[in-house]
Amino acid sequence: MRLTPDDTGRTGHGERVSRLAGGLSVVIAEPDFIVSKSIENWIKNRGCSVISTVTTGTEILRAAEERQPDLVVLGVTLKNRENGIDIAHTLLSTFGIPSVLVATSTEDILRAPGRLHEIAGYIVKPFGEGDLILAMEISLAQRENLTWMRQQPDPGKGSGEFP
């Protein structure tokens, strides 16, 4: 029997089904080759496809536009010292694509708190497969929540009742 999720992400039997179970497409943008290959292997182990591996912000945005991935895993600092946080914000605001940020330290994340309000998924090196998968799940859930919130009627308009 195949278990499929309802709108809550649970099956009729109460089991939680991973958002990664559907074979998501992912772009990886991590300048460290060893880290990038580890991420690629872990993502493929979950049945997801890595549709592109890049190292610069320009390449990420090109892949996002041309390939429309479900998720991007990218370093906070990219090749040529490009800012991954800015790229992640652009991915979400322009293409609706969530990201998981890969940081070398918590300081990388704390430097930009004002720009992280819609970027929920991040991991700090060193990390393992479980950390990556959890961050991906959180990032995808955040996108679902934002999409749902944007589809709700404005409570200030219309009937005056809160939805």
Structural descriptors:
globular, disordered N terminus, Rossmann fold, 5 strands, alpha/beta, 163 residues
Tell me the name of the CATH class.
Alpha Beta
Q: What are the low-pLDDT stretches, counting only 5+ consecutive residues below 50? A: 1-17
Radius of gyration: 17 Å
Q: Determine the fraction of residues in helical runs and give it as a percent range.
A: 25-40%
Strand order of the largest sheet: 2-1-3-4-5
The major beta sheet can be summarized as: 5 strands, parallel
CATH superfamily: Response regulator
Q: Roughly what fraction of the amino acids lie in strands?
A: 15-25%
If you had to describe this structure to a student in words, what would you say it looks like?
The protein has 163 residues and is α/β, with parallel strands linked by helices. The protein has a single domain, classed as Response regulator (Rossmann fold, 3-Layer(aba) Sandwich), CATH 3.40.50. 39% of the residues lie in helices and 15% in strands. The protein has five helices and five strands, in the order βαβαβαβαβα. It has helices spanning 33-45, 57-67, 84-95, 106-110, 129-151; strands at 25-29, 49-54, 71-75, 99-103, 121-124. The protein has a five-stranded parallel β-sheet with strand order 2-1-3-4-5, with helices on both faces. Helix 4 links the parallel strand 4 (99-103) and strand 5. Helix 2 runs parallel beside helix 3 (84-95).
